[in-house]
Amino acid sequence: MRNLYFALTWLAIALAAPAKAQPTVSPDEIVVESTKTFVQTYQSEGLTHEPILVVALHGDLPNASYQYEFARIVAENSKNTISVGMLRPGYSDREGRSSDGVMGETVGDNYDATRINQIAAAIQQLAAHYNASEIILAAHSGGAAIAAKLVAVYRDLVDHAVIVSCPCNVTKWRKDMYEMTEFEGFNGPLDVVSPVDLVSDISDKLTISIFVGRSDNVARPYLSQEYLEALRAQGKTAELTLLEGEHNIFLHRQIFISLLDKISEMNGELSAESAAQ
Prior knowledge:
Blueprint: H1 2-16, E1 24-25, E2 29-32, E3 35-43, E4 52-57, H2 66-76, E5 81-86, H3 113-130, E6 134-140, H4 142-153, E7 160-164, H5 170-181, E8 207-213, H6 221-233, E9 237-243, H7 253-276
Parallel strand pairs: 4-5, 4-6, 6-7, 7-8, 8-9
Antiparallel strand pairs: 1-2, 2-3, 3-5
Helix pairs in contact: 3-4
């Protein structure tokens, strides 16, 4: 059903739009309508013709590369998994590669539709290229805010989301950051919708694992708690885990344990479905 969804989606786009360059996917980049998004791709052992796709997004700070390390660890410790670290629009990594787009001021302004659409289009292409059976989106900090919005806007795209250190209420987060840093970029209102305001649009089929450090003073734990409560008020399936640590917990062992358990669960379901056919 998922593969039929992707096939019909891209067929509709192709028929409705004038002739354009075809999207391309390689282990290092995805190009959709001439927009390039850089990635690093890792493959686990035991790949089938319908692997699980894991996509990892980094936070707001520049020169981001830890999403690649996240993807590598996932691939090395799982089976039947394509694991991809993605470089957000406008960002450069430590190797000097840059995804197309504009990075923004990193004050919540780059959690907008333009960046979300670029990331979603790249994930759709990855899913089609690798014939993914399930999609997991794991994201940290500002990337978590983008992921939490993406699963609401593209409600049938992702099967499981891992939301780590999330500024899920952008207005409250900006207020906290202004009080802490006194940086004027965080002061005043910003025309961007918060993930917490979109939870009603999330599919009931999506499962969400939320993680936050107990001592996180960047995206404080109450923001994740508020997001959890909003999700549960709408009947969504979500859990929150408080971890020992501060903001930079994306590579925390407990997050990998939870994610790898989810991949094993999905692989078990996939095996059962294959056996029944």
